Amino acid sequence: METINKNEIKQGNVVDLTHEGHGVIKIDRYPIFVPNALIGEVIKYKIIKVKKNFAIGKLLQVIKPSEQRVEPPCKYYWKCGGCQLQHMTYDAQLAMKQSQVTNLFHRKAQFSNTIINKTIGMDHPWHYRNKSQLPIGKDRDGKAIIGYYRQRSHDIIDMDSCLIQDDVHQDIMNHVKQWIIDYDISVYNESTKKGLLRHLVIRTGYYSDDKMVVFVTNGKNFQQASILVEKLKETFPNITSIKQNINKSHSNVIMGEQSVTLYGKDKIADQLSDTTFKISDQSFYQINSSQTEKLYQQAIEYAQLTGEETVLDTYCGIGTIGLYMAPVAKHVYGVEVVPSAIKDAQQNATLNGFENTTFVCGKAEEVIIKWKQQGIKPDVVMVDPPRKGCDETFLQTLLKLNPKRIVYISCNPSTQQRDAQILDSQYELQEITPVDMFPQTTHVETVALFERKS
Ligand code: SAH
């Protein structure tokens, strides 16, 4: 094989893309991963790392560009860690996500008969984030900055715009930054663990006009809160809620467990289809509302409810999926581990007048065993775990419950594929639809339909 040495400059054809959106060049069968290179391109690159099974290259020049290459519209794109695919056309992004799922399920597992549909995309794949979580820090001159983290680091990039978040978020972000400077408000330092303001979290309703601003602080004492509240109310009279969340932990977790309402309502309201939801600052809520409707629509189609079914909504968050299904189900049981989210789910059931729902706080893997012991026999089970996928006990209990159908939503298709192999003993994985919840990024969301083998 040709030798490959660090710092060597080479030219090659890009033959594939990884799930991180990196171009792949092969020398014999040895892969070289080159970030920002696209399939079909001829590029000049420099080898920056050589390992036994692969190397990493740095793109130096695109000699023959792909038709899928576009100029990234965001001025921070090349340094910010928020987006990874702005240099690709949106159609190419959607195709890449579909092919990633096909690769995982058809080639790397036994599901070659499963239909993998085209990725459901957005008409306008920008400004979709209804929630922004922005770290606050200081630059080298001690001036306050707010933005997103640089790629693979915790350095904050001082930003005045972000093309994937709701427009009003950047307006709020820029004003808050100026007030922090003007009033010399204490800012948290990740290395010394000292200072007050850690994150600015902004949430906006999609159908509602609700807007929530949360200041995450390293401690309770927030003397200058009143200045920020007054300034926010004056500049953005349509803000409906201002909160302080206290996070004294030294971890990467953004929110702490305690929140105080500084002004207005303690939750924001939103609507998906005909169902209204109230959302606490600490509860999970899908960040791309218009795509969430498409995702849930696909899930409900897969569930094929007639009104007679007992449905489990596992990993239910604030109960969005279960409440979406309640009008066409006999009874919905939901489980979720975060207490404030389950409280939201219970209140949301009342708010929408549903009497056929039961929401329980606990670990899905434990509560599902209790449900089995209580003799609950689900017809359809909705599964929507976090990135790490399902606990094996959960899946084993699910197999014993033996519902007719399982609809599994995932934000990480590789753990979904792993879990599908356990369900495979009793269920046929019929179809998977990727839904683009996170345009311009490599994140892939999927919804999968499993039917009981007869
Ligand atoms: N179905 C919801 C939430 C999906 S996100 C929606 O569409 O909005 C995944 C949820 O699983 C989060 O709310 C998280 O708090 C919850 N979770 C994580 N681990 C869990 C576990 N072991 N048992 C139950 N819920 C869990």
From TrEMBL:
Transmembrane segments: none annotated. The keyword Transferase applies. CDD domains: AdoMet_MTases. S-adenosyl-L-methionine binds at Q286, Y315, E336, D384. The active site is at C411 (nucleophile), C411. GO terms for biological process: rRNA base methylation. One of its GO terms (molecular function) is 4 iron, 4 sulfur cluster binding. Pfam families: TRAM (PF01938), tRNA_U5-meth_tr (PF05958). The keyword S-adenosyl-L-methionine applies. It comes from the Bacteria. SUPFAM superfamilies: Nucleic acid-binding proteins, S-adenosyl-L-methionine-dependent methyltransferases. InterPro entries: MeTrfase_TrmA_AS, MeTrfase_TrmA_CS, NA-bd_OB-fold, SAM-dependent_MTases_sf, TRAM_dom, U5_MeTrfase_fam. Residues 1-61 form the TRAM domain. Keywords: 4Fe-4S, Iron, Iron-sulfur, Metal-binding, Methyltransferase, S-adenosyl-L-methionine, Transferase. Belongs to the class I-like SAM-binding methyltransferase superfamily. RNA M5U methyltransferase family. This is TRAM domain-containing protein. It comes from Staphylococcus haemolyticus (strain JCSC1435). The lineage of its organism: Bacteria, Bacillati, Bacillota, Bacilli, Bacillales.
